[in-house]
UniProtKB/TrEMBL annotation:
Assigned protein family: Belongs to the 'GDSL' lipolytic enzyme family.
Record's keyword terms, sorted: Coiled coil, Glycoprotein, Hydrolase, Signal
Name of the molecule in the record: Acetylajmalan esterase-like
Organismal lineage: Eukaryota, Viridiplantae, Streptophyta, Embryophyta, Tracheophyta
Coiled coil: 262-289
Keyword Cell division in annotation: no
Signal peptide (from-to): 1-22
Amino acid sequence: MATKFLLLPLIILVLSSLCTNAHLLKTCNFDQMYQLGDSISDTGNLIREFPIGTSTPFARLPYGEAFSRGYIGDGTLPNNSTGRCSNGFLMIDYIAMAAGLPTLPPYKNVEADFRHGVNFAVAGSTALRSEVLATKHIFSPVTNSSLYVQLDWMTKHFNSTCLNHRDCVEKLENALFMVGEIGGNDYNYAIFQGKTMEELRSMVPEVVDAIMNGVRKSISFGATRVVVPGNFPIGCLPIYQTAFETNISSAYDENKCLKQLNEFAMYHNEQLQQAINKLKQENPNAIIVYGDYYNAYQSLLQSATSHGFEMEKACCGIGGKYNFNLTRMCGAPDVPVCPDPHRYMSWDGVYLTEKGYRVMADWLIYDFFTKLQCHF
Ligand SMILES: *[C@@H]1O[C@H](CO)[C@@H](O)[C@H](O)[C@H]1NC(C)=O
Ligand SMILES: *[C@@H]1O[C@H](CO)[C@@H](O)[C@H](O)[C@H]1NC(C)=O
Ligand SMILES: *[C@@H]1O[C@H](CO)[C@@H](O)[C@H](O)[C@H]1NC(C)=O
Ligand SMILES: *[C@@H]1O[C@H](CO)[C@@H](O)[C@H](O)[C@H]1NC(C)=O
Ligand SMILES: *[C@@H]1O[C@H](CO)[C@@H](O)[C@H](O)[C@H]1NC(C)=O
Ligand SMILES: *[C@@H]1O[C@H](CO)[C@@H](O)[C@H](O)[C@H]1NC(C)=O
């Protein structure tokens, strides 16, 4: 009898923390996180790459302007742009916080403390190797550190931190691996370099294979819990809405997003999920979860009004219907920044504000919590 009375306050406590999602993933007992990916999760690798890293806008304010509030917990200095492609935190930061872990340090920061994991993600990177894209006449303009290269870094990292395979398996027993989002840039570069939707579709199987290779490799090191995120509804992003703006109203869906581009993102995501299901059968001992960034974003759109979000315009940018111009992007001279980024979903027309990422991460954290089989 007595235990029942004791349990009730406990349940209320658990339920109330569940509502905020703030530490929901603590019950998963993750002690490390490893991230492979692109600008959606880069916490400082690209800006440390030679030769162009320091000259990218992400190395300077207004990127990271929200960090003027101070220390962020991974050894990054306060008041520093950090290399994140946003005004502040990314989804991966909120996921780390929800797991009770420090924010993930970038691999390229030689001074970082990697005891709780490493972030290998590089802004601008692709799932396919630059050389492979080049054979399709697609040029990687920002970095050659594709998923393939990041997996090589991961091999080097585990070679230097594990004594042998068994040691790695033991060390990674409670680690969370995030393989993506990656692949979005393969399509971005293709489309902005003049490829047709048909050509984009024909790339999907190869991109999905490259991502699956990343999952297999992670599992071969000892990963037991892997999240594989899909693509965003790219037709909702100002960069695409500006490039493909049209007067044909049937080109838009009820959220004013470009249908054809969203359909393409869904096409990639469906193939990715099929590949994940196949891989699950091959690896019954690993928990492999699809990260539904597409629907997390849709949910953000649906709650936009209740969050008081500006739906169309980017916070940092200039011109046009969406406050976006490809030749004068956020970070360029005299491009204005809105005074109230928390009222915007889009930070710069490509990436979200930290508030937007937080709302998406809250949705995802709850979804991961259920699917990663974490228990109270
Ligand atoms: C960051 O810089 C701004 C402007 O220079 C200053 O007001 C603020 O106090 C700084 N914050 C920290 C944590 O150093
Ligand atoms: C961030 O810190 C680095 C290293 O101390 C420095 O070179 C850079 O100028 C800083 N960036 C900003 C935006 O303060
Ligand atoms: C990528 O590699 C190619 C071939 O080695 C090189 O020409 C190019 O400059 C590299 N790009 C970047 C962004 O480092
Ligand atoms: C990792 O270690 C193995 C065995 O010692 C070695 O064969 C391999 O070349 C190493 N790989 C890297 C990337 O350092
Ligand atoms: C849409 O229609 C207006 C008025 O007819 C025209 O000025 C504008 O160029 C059109 N925009 C596009 C993207 O076709
Ligand atoms: C974008 O910026 C360029 C250069 O400043 C300008 O020529 C062009 O008209 C702008 N485009 C739009 C749609 O505002």
